[in-house]
Write a structure and sequence with these properties.
Blueprint: H1 3-21, H2 27-35, E1 56-59, E2 62-64, H3 67-77, E3 84-88, H4 94-101, E4 105-110, H5 113-125, E5 130-134, E6 149-152, H6 161-164, E7 178-183, E8 189-196, E9 202-210
Parallel strand pairs: 3-4, 3-6, 4-5, 6-7
Antiparallel strand pairs: 1-2, 7-8, 8-9
Helix pairs in contact: 1-2
This protein binds S-adenosyl-L-homocysteine.
S-adenosyl-L-homocysteine binds at residues 62-65, 88-89, 91-92, 94-95, 109-112, 115, 136-138, 153-154, 213, 215-217.
Length: 218
């Protein structure tokens, strides 16, 4: 292993400790974060900052989410190996790769073509099997629905009803699909979990406040 790689590995382990100290208790999620080389999702000038707990620019006015946010959202989604998960807002591809590390089948949609192309290429290079799509994620992905989980990584003013309709309905032996989505205006959004409980019914749970780039419907 190169010296540089070893250095990144040490910093990544420190980041995982920091996330644990900040209250992330899901060790499976922490282990996944510990396995993903976040620096590779950033331009070389930002590599030195890749393992600080901060959001960073990825071009076109967009950001890679803060590691705490990725960990918090992933823990709320609580993906189980083999599940089908839809991500809205591929961005750098980092969150998608963390989900891959958890053994789920990831579908992800990005509206900015250059980001979509870069993430698609990088995920392929790194061996992450993610199904990517360029388009408006607020419409979901009807052709491959329903999903066990949907994770939205951009700020929604309201919950897109189309996405709710693409969650798996509950059955006798399994609860329905769930969506983790930051909901609110430009100055802070409430991380919300909606779990499908019936044909048109959802259980809603609101958690902490975050700050995301906006979910833009085209
Ligand atoms: N999950 C990303 C963080 C992305 S930031 C990561 O791990 O890096 C949010 C992303 O959502 C941006 O790339 C933005 O272009 C995208 N986005 C915003 N509105 C969208 C929409 N309607 N459909 C798909 N992507 C959207």
């Amino acid at each position: 292993m190169r010296r540089e790689d070893r250095q990144f590995q040490r910093r990544r382990a420190e980041l995982v400790d920091e996330l644990r100290r900040k209250g992330i208790g899901d060790e499976t999620v922490l282990a996944a974060i510990g396995r993903v080389s976040r620096h590779l999702f950033l331009e070389p000038a930002l590599h030195a900052r890749a393992y600080r707990d901060e959001a960073l620019p990825i071009g076109l006015g967009q950001t890679i989410s803060q590691p705490f946010t990725v960990a918090f959202q992933t823990a709320l989604l609580a993906p189980v190996s083999g599940e089908r998960i839809l991500e809205i807002g591929t961005g750098s591809g980092y969150q998608a790769s963390v989900l891959c590390e958890l053994g789920v089948r990831v579908f992800t949609i990005e509206r900015h073509l250059p980001l979509y192309e870069r993430a698609r290429y990088l995920l392929g290079e790194l061996g992450y099997r993610v199904v990517t799509r360029h388009g408006d994620g607020t419409q979901g992905w009807a052709a491959v629905a329903p999903f066990d989980g949907i994770i939205v990584t951009a700020a929604a003013k309201t919950v897109p009803q189309i996405l709710l309709g693409q969650l798996r309905r509950p059955s006798d032996d399994r609860p329905g699909g769930r969506m983790v989505i930051p909901v609110g205006g430009s100055f802070g959004q409430t991380m919300t979990v909606l779990t499908c409980t019936g044909a048109e019914s959802y259980h809603v749970r609101e958690t902490e406040t975050f700050s995301f780039v906006p979910l833009v419907s085209t």
